[in-house]
Amino acid sequence: MPTPSRLRSALPLALTAALLLAACHKSDPGPSQPVAGDDAAADVPAGAVSLELRNEPVDVVAEKLASAAGKPFAIDADAQAVAHCARITLFTGGPVPLPNAIRLLREALDPAGLSLVESETGGLVVRRIPDKPLPATCAGSVSAQAEPSERAPAPSDASVEKFAAGVRKVSETEYEITQASVALLGDDQAGLVRSGRFVPAQKDGKIVGLKLFGIRSRSMLATLGLQNGDLVLDLGGYALTSPDLALEAYSKLRGAKKVEMTLERRGAPQKFVYRIVEK
């Protein structure tokens, strides 16, 4: 059984791991940064990217292209499982214009049963193509014929419901979370991360925080009051602008009993407070 100190630290660790996942990748993403594997091409012209993808999952590829393109990326809920197991190998042989890179990626996604479409807001969305066979890398991990049960929720939904049972909304920006629900966060940090997309947001060429997309209405992040389009600016007083600050926040928040998070919602700043209670 987890000790009380471990339970107290699980909330800040889980929140930090989720919110800082994107920030812990290579820093300073921008329109001119190549989307590459191990060897990024140098001196890439503005508005061009160099694709060097070696058997990489689609959700990782989407995250890289989002950083390079400076565009928000979202993966529909029913496409997330396939996007995680489907893999892409693609090389451009040098910098290519961004529209060409997106076109190549769209063609590479089609055999995996996924499509890449542009949203009304200018972002890019990965969607599942109905009745398309699953790629070989997804065999056994995703069921194409699975139908939602009307009698019992899926395991992930059950986990969210169990977590939500221990979350009390005190106000629009203040929440109390029981130690039992905190323990669920600590045990399923990957599930928390998968419940939304975290894309580095830039202003005047500099990262200012992480923007949230693809948050389902029934998810851990939604239970914590987060919404699509929220721009998370800092966590526990640490700005989410670089990998160094991300790691420092992760370290300093280990023993916290309370986590404060500043975000921008529809242009207005808000501060969220999460407190851990016994029950």
In the CATH hierarchy, the third-tier topology of the largest domain is known as Pdz3 Domain
CATH homologous superfamily assignment of the largest domain? PDZ domain
Structural class, by secondary structure, is alpha+beta
Count helical runs: 9
Using only CA atoms, what is the Rg?
19 Å
Mean residue pLDDT = 72
Q: Can you write the helix and strand succession as a string?
A: HEEHEHEEHEEHEEHHEEHEEHEE
**Second-tier CATH architecture of the largest domain:** Roll
Largest sheet: 8 strands, mixed
Number of strands: 15
Strand content: 25-35%
Protein name: PDZ domain-containing protein
InterPro entries: PDZ_sf
Region (Disordered): 138-158
Signal peptide: 1-22
Question: What features would you describe in this structure?
Answer:
- The chain has 279 residues and is of the alpha+beta class.
- It has 2 domains: 4-25 and 152-277, Pdz3 Domain, CATH 2.30.42.10; 48-138, Phage tail protein beta-alpha-beta fold, CATH 3.55.50.30.
- Helices cover 31% and strands 28% of the residues.
- The protein contains 9 helices and 15 strands.
- The longest helix has 17 residues, at 4-20.
- Residues 1-9, 20-46 and 143-155 have low confidence and may be disordered.
